[in-house]
Write a structure and sequence with these properties.
With 530 residues, the protein is α+β, with helices and mostly antiparallel strands. Helices cover 31% and strands 23% of the residues. The radius of gyration is 30 Å and the shape is globular. It holds the Pfam family SBP_bac_5.
Length: 530
């Protein structure tokens, strides 16, 4: 080693020092934390409900739960963004509106397949729409009242010509009557109530035992994002109590439609259970038949509207699980204003008495009212709702209310014949547009199902204009004026708007509640570990 120079030794020493320093720094650097475990999700989720499936055929089904199933096993030209009332394209890639809203050109996706792998195209959609019209079931009016003709322009382009312009037709195209179904699986001219063929949605039906069980499995041919959970089992229960017990025992993962208000509040305190709350779009209201005296007198209707105590009903009957409503257009929908609150306030007895006196009534000459309700169609709380309406009106000291009831079929028949002066009714939307909450109630001839209780040329004109107006800001103004006139004429008085509740195990996620009131099974998952 004597031959090694001092310079070399110095270089070696420097290198050693650097290496040792680097090693020391590395030893001082903290060890990174382990990566979080990857969550694991169950292959199957079980949902319980007290609802029933009517017909597994979009030409006949006209109820919310069956439509919920359709929205998971089928899909149409448009659909709603989860959690919103905003439309987005479904099985189409593009569309055009022509002739001022009278013609719609739909460009379909080229990768659409049914659950058996067979193709879906413009010819299929045309056949499905025209089949609805031929069968002429309950929801056929979505086609027969609106559509003039359907033409195939090419294999993936469809032209729909309407009878008259309709500004909200895309919302109609999100309704199951416009969902394509396989022509080789459904008969062309008759209803197929237990058909499990489905459509082009994220799930396919693998088992259906009526009133017992429905089993869905991820559709391998679906064009979009695969469902979060491979298999969804739906079990049907006879009542809300049995449904709640099934959740508490672990028999089901999710309890949906419909739990009692007391069950909802009780489940909120149960360990291991989560209660989900969201806006609902179903409404309840009072109908005055303006052809029957004394309800042909606007002052009488206004007085009863002013005396109504919505908050009392919401709290005492429903324990806060509904919200007071001051318009037929629900809270949260564009165009809504609190028209009745703006005009009458809430439980305004002074105004009610003033209006009753103007109408010729007094403490010694009371207004006689027969208030009708149906005891089970809207749930077992209906008698309590009627009792609180009676209480509110009689607080004026000038009204005497007799409460009467009839079972649903009789009730509906008497109403349609125009034989009931004051009735309680409810409404679940067909499509998410203010038109659906106004035209069927207030337009002359369109409210036959309520016994034609109201007719006004000015109201008719505004409703008709709002249907065809393409400018959204102008539609907002029209519906504002419609609601103001509704509150002034008071042929129909809103009471409350429902909320949506789902109870689940606390390991369940992906539940989205929106005004459509439909669960999207394909978003739901259950964590089982890591």
């Amino acid at each position: 080693m004597r031959g090694v120079s001092k310079a070399v030794w110095a270089a070696v020493v420097i290198v050693v020092v650097i290496v040792l320093a680097a090693a020391a720094l590395l030893m001082q650097k903290p060890t990174p934390p382990p990566a979080p475990p990857t969550p694991k999700y169950a292959d199957t989720i079980t949902i319980g409900t007290t609802d029933k499936i009517s017909d597994l055929d979009p030409a006949m089904a006209y109820d919310f739960f069956t439509w919920e199933v359709f929205n998971n096993v089928m899909e149409g030209p448009f659909k709603y963004k989860p959690g919103t009332t905003d439309l987005e394209k479904g099985i189409i890639t593009d569309y055009q509106v022509q002739e001022g809203g009278k013609v719609y050109i739909l460009k379909l996706r080229t990768d659409l397949k049914f659950a058996d792998g067979s193709p879906c195209n413009a010819n299929t959609l045309k056949w499905s729409i025209e089949r609805v019209a031929r069968i002429n079931g309950d929801p056929a009016w979505f086609v027969t009242d609106l559509v003039d003709k359907v033409d195939v322009l090419d294999n993936y382009t469809l032209k729909i010509t309407l009878k008259s312009p309709l500004s909200f037709f895309p919302a109609i195209l999100a309704v199951p009557t416009y969902f394509p179904i396989p022509p080789d699986k459904y008969p062309a001219d008759k209803v197929s109530s237990d058909n499990t063929a489905g459509g082009v949605g994220p799930y396919r039906i693998v088992k259906f035992v009526r009133d017992q069980q429905l089993v869905l499995e991820a559709n391998p041919y679906y064009y979009g994002t695969p469902p979060k959970t491979k298999t969804v089992v739906i079990k049907f229960y006879k009542d809300a109590t049995t449904l709640r017990l099934a959740l508490e025992s672990g028999e089901i993962d999710i309890a949906w439609k419909t739990l009692n208000p007391t069950d909802i509040n009780s489940l909120k305190t149960k360990p291991g259970i989560k209660v989900w709350e969201g806006p609902g779009s179903f409404i309840r209201y009072i109908v005055f038949n303006t052809k029957i005296p004394p309800f042909d007198n606007k002052l009488v209707r206004q007085a009863l509207a002013a005396a109504l105590d919505r908050n009392s009903i919401a709290q005492k009957v429903f324990l806060g699980t509904v919200d007071p409503l001051y318009s037929l257009i629900p809270n949260g929908m564009w165009g809504h204003i609190d028209a009745f609150k703006d005009k009458y306030g809430e439980a305004n007895l002074d105004l009610a008495k003033q209006l009753l006196r103007q109408a010729g009534y007094s403490e010694s000459n009371k207004l006689k009212v027969e208030l009708w309700y149906t005891p089970s169609h809207y749930g077992d709380t209906e008698a309590d709702v009627a009792a609180l309406i009676k209480e509110a009106w009689e607080k004026t000291g000038m009204v005497e209310v007799t409460v009467k009831s009839a079972e649903w079929s009789t009730y509906l028949d008497l109403t349609r014949k125009g034989q009931l002066a004051v009735t309680l009714y409810g409404w679940y939307p067909d499509y998410m547009d203010p038109d659906d909450y106004t035209f069927p109630f207030l337009h002359t001839g369109s409210n036959r199902w309520l016994g034609n209780p109201y007719s006004d040329p000015e109201m008719d004109k505004m409703l008709e204009q709002a249907e065809v107006e393409p400018d959204q800001s102008k539609r907002v103004d029209l519906y504002k004026n419609i609601q103001i006139k509704l509150a002034d004429d008071a042929p129909i008085v809103p009471i409350f708007q429902g909320k949506l509740y789902v109870a689940s195990k606390d390991t369940v996620g992906g539940i989205v509640l929106d005004p459509l009131m439909l669960l999207r099974y394909y978003l739901i998952y259950k964590q089982v570990g890591s």
